[in-house]
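Think of the structure tokens as a kind of shorthand, similar to the way a musician reads notation: each symbol stands for something richer, in this case the local conformation of the backbone. In the example below we present two proteins back to back. Begin with the first one, reading the sequence and then the tokens, and try to describe in your own words what changes along the chain.
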Amino acid sequence: MESAAFCIACGAPPPLTSDRLCEACLRARTTFSEVPDRIQQHRCAKCGMHEVEKRWVRIEDEELGELRLREHLGVADGANAVAVDMAYQSIDERTARLHVTVEGQLEGHDFANQHEVLLQTSNAVCPACTRKAGAYFEATMQLRSAGRRLSDEELKDLRGTLDELLDELESDPMFFVTKEGPVTGGWDLQFGSKALARTWARRLVKRFGGTTKETSTLVGIRDGAEVTRLTLSYRKPAYSLGDIVRWKRENWLVSAWQKDGPTLRRLDRNERTGATWRDMEKTSVACRFEEQKVVDVLNRDSSGAEIMDPTDYRVVTVALPYDDDGSSRDLRIAFIDDSWLAVPGHAGVD
């Protein structure tokens, strides 16, 4: 005859757990959840970023509290249907209190624990701020133009794309500019990250055309690996999208950027072609996009239109562009070789 089952701790009859404990003994012997009374963390005194899993990140207070709780909260083996609720209470700049409720089931029994955790913050300095203070940089970016000095407006446009890029990229503490300023013919910047310099260079080429050139210099050895610095030179073309250039004795509209050079659209007939950057070195800008004007059509026939000269307000006639369909009420015109010419495409670019 088999003996009746009983709790191995107190001798109580069933129901019993898988470890042959009654509910009372299970609860007495079980710590369903545990978390330290105090959690210490580090925050950079210069930039305010917190150290999280050996990385430094910018994070909101409540999200940080949830992260610290996940790092330090322990739950009994075998627990299921666990739900954690946390309320974040700020005490001062360095201290916060986490009010934590942990609920769940173990061996079919409901458990609920309450915890209060003091989150204390100590000042530190992150590696990025340490490197900034030491004028650290991994890459130098050189902004230049082909055969001329970059204008202040061009530099503003080029530099503006870096701010756009930093706003779009996922935050990285090494994405900083150590030093920047004017140099003869252009602008130089030093970056804390090679990746940032390369990403910006690709954006500049896509937006403004031109070419880039990379060179690396060995500066030392760290942990058995070579440490190099990157120099990236970006050369902006002397022309922009929408500009009209003189190439092979003809006037062409710069309509798009390709990897190896611009796409050109002939001004006087429906012809398109691609040119290499080297091909374009001997071009001259006949009329910049900013210098072109949009004017109303006063009268038109099949081949020409009367417009008002924007410089002296006299009525003049210009030949219609080859893509004119007779419906446009205005034209884009460019002053080339002492006369106004209509520009195909109206907007000046494809």
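Once you have a description of the first chain, move to the second and do the same.
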Amino acid sequence: MRINRNLINYSWCNFLFVALFFSLLISCKKSINQNYSKDENNIYFKLISFGDSIKSPTLEKYLLLDSEIKTQADSLIYNSRHITKNGQILALNSNLINQYFKDYFLKANIEDSMSFYIPPKIFFRTFFDTIPPKFCKNDSIIKYNFKIKAILSVSDYEKLQRAEAEDKELFELKSIDDYLKNKYPNVNPDPNGIYVLEHTVTNGEKPVFGSRTIIKFQGFFLDGQTVDAAPQTMEYVLGTPDQIIKGLNIVISNLKKGEFSKIIVPSRLAFGELGSSNQIVQAYTPLVYEITLIDIK
């Protein structure tokens, strides 16, 4: 089934609003912070700040948002600054947005900011079509914060889309270059385009294509925020397509048992121009990985 990629840029917001609508059906296991209010629809929210603008959107407009999603323990799941240069885009005329929230945004102004609580089962099922990940399976709420950066006309939106399409690859290269200048100024890419930042050496055996290997790894965005809440340990057959990203397959094939590497994987060897299936990692996003080859069977 083909996914309409035009919806991806604002789908984070769309799924959130639908999730919030259904959240009145689920009671939280943990008391909501006293600073949050419950409205007539049993939705918990907090106004963080009002903007000075008196300009409100209309249905044919788009909203540009700064947004972040956190676990109950305040661990970051998603931040719009990690995945897009400008912010998350919300189409107010989208049928995916419940009318209750559509009415709210039509009354909002630039620089208004809010915080919401959402049950994780609704949150992840609505957008990801999956169960909550292990790192938040015991949470009773997910926290969502957003700020309205701008109100866009249709022409503004189309211009922004064209500009982002043109400079995403350049933006990725610049972000890698800035990271290296600050932390690893003497590192250059290998022939595959992977940047090896740190590496330990052992006398262990080296895996071959088809080897059953056990690895431990964790992914990070360039600003240090984690892609995975905790290091992941998995067993897989080296060279198996689509089980891990191409960049990790390449690096593991060059590791010996017990060796550790810290690397930057460019997007073309990670999640590419489409991003990850759950959209936590967006298109043209380079990633830092720490990986250890634990064992070869």
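Compare your description with these statements about the second chain. DSSP finds six helices and twelve strands in the chain.
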